[in-house]
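Input/output pair, single chain:
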Amino acid sequence: MIKAIIFGCNGKMGQVLSNLLLQNSEFEVVAGIDKDVNKFNNSYKVYEHLNDFNGEVDVIIDFSHPSYLDQLLIFSLKRKVPLVIATTGLSEDDNQKIHIASTEFAILQSANMSLGINILANILKQVSAVLIDSFDIEIIEKHHNRKIDAPSGTAKLLADAINESLGNRMEYVYGRSGGNAKREPQEIGIHAIRGGTIPGEHTVIFAGNDEIIEFKHTALSKNIFALGAIKAAQFIIKKDTGLFTMNDIFNFKKEGK
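Output:
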């Protein structure tokens, strides 16, 4: 069995992941890590700090907060434990730390673990290169009213996929306001909406002269992200070192391949 630790086990995503892992005969949840240790009556022991766990572990799945990244990386570096990082809101400095750490042990990082979003990102790479000369690109993301970071990591993932296909020449504009909000051709607008219990909805708009093309992905529950994280864990435990994404799991072709 795959011995897993859930980092952020008492958060909303942590609990969804916990329930699915406990139903999966291939996994054993050996511990959870959370600042609120007693929030739920979990069937496994929950620790406040990762270093308090001394048992055996094959993989750590992280749905927590960027402030815990150093703790994760130090523990995994010491124990050479593969990591699945699904936490969003990471800074460029954080991403650089992850990149450096991946030379010592295996890490799979993604702002969105769903198959649908990762397929969409790859479609957008192809479409953007064809449409960019005559279409403006805008991204609208919707999430529940408790989501902390904005725009979402998934909106950035989609924007980065588009920008990569265009030689990274586009500039991101986060929301528009004021009396002079005329857009420039090199912009990708990214807009965040927060309300209710929306699990996640992302729409990419290509607006041209007299025609509009929209690509939309709607998450109906958080299960899709947890299921993707489980696939990521199954994948990453077979790797020794390196930084991977969901593209590596789904065998999407990389640019130039």
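The chain has a mean pLDDT of 94. Helices lie at 12-22, 69-79, 92-101, 115-131, 153-165, 223-236, 246-250.
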